[in-house]
Amino acid sequence: MSDEVLKVEHECEGALAILTLNRPDAMNALSSELRAALSGAFAALEADPHTRVVILTGSGRAFCAGLDLKELGDPGGPGAGLDSGGDLVRAIERFPGPVIGAINGFAITGGFELALACDVLLASSEARFADTHARVGIMPGWGLSQKLSRALGIYRAKEISLTGNFVSAEQALEWGLVSHVTPAGELLDRARAIAGDMLSCVPEVLRDYKRVIDEGFAATFGEGLALERRTAREHARTVPPETIAERRKGVMARGREQGG
């Protein structure tokens, strides 16, 4: 097993990056070293024009158990204090392309928040989600209290957060938290397949579409519609009609293939 706390691999001629949290003996808890490595990796990928999609996953039986509480409890340690990690979530969210969370196992509290920083979530049948902030006695600070209710509805989000109970992969699928549940050995293959579909899209539109969805989601409905119209007008000026016609042929051919 590699001693690196974060493994970074590139595929598809550099267009796809796979980041694996690699502290399996600690359930991939976010030590100060791992937080710094993950923030740095996403900053480097943001600056890399070749990388367009990222898969984020974990090694062993956990995706991420949240902040390393043992390290946080050491007054003289490098990760002491609870006000830590917000920059990590923002680093993930600043990556301009889609981030696919391949949730291989437990995603607990800060690990749950790490998952919610991704754009698309897939889960293995072994995945479990839990928000234990209320049980540990701390408040969330990486977005969970706002993102989960917007993703699942306020009542389901309250049940999860105010009980601290675990949510199975199947329940997460039923509630719409994850898009797919696969056997553990097939998770990364499914994530790669979805990443490949994303990479087959027009690169600049993939990036701009994600931005419009995210910015509109954080705005009112009317503001979001105005943003979409403005972005569509600006983009339309840059694309010749013959280019659209040629791409449309490719979309129709793909539809015939997928329709059998």
Q: Can you characterise this structure?
A:
The chain has 260 residues and is α/β, with parallel strands linked by helices. The protein has 2 domains: 6-199, 2-enoyl-CoA Hydratase, Chain A, domain 1 (Alpha-Beta Complex), CATH 3.90.226; 203-258. It contains 12 helices and 10 strands. The protein has a 6-stranded mixed beta sheet, with helices on both faces. Strands 4-6-8-9 form a 4-stranded mixed beta sheet. Helix 1 (32-47) links the parallel strand 2 and strand 3 (53-58). Helix 1 (32-47) runs parallel beside helix 3 (86-94). The longest helix is centred in the last third of the chain and has 18 residues, at 241-258. Residues 79-83 have low confidence and may be disordered.
Summarize, please.
49% of the residues lie in helices and 16% in strands. The protein is of the alpha/beta class and 260 residues long. Strand 1 (6-11) and strand 2 (16-21) form a beta hairpin.
Fold topology:
Elements: E1 6-11, E2 16-21, H1 32-47, E3 53-58, E4 62-64, H2 69-72, H3 86-94, E5 99-103, E6 106-108, H4 110-116, E7 120-124, E8 128-130, H5 133-136, H6 144-152, H7 154-163, E9 167-168, H8 169-175, E10 180-182, H9 187-199, H10 203-217, H11 221-236, H12 241-258
Parallel strand pairs: 2-3, 3-5, 4-6, 5-7, 6-8, 7-10
Antiparallel strand pairs: 1-2, 8-9
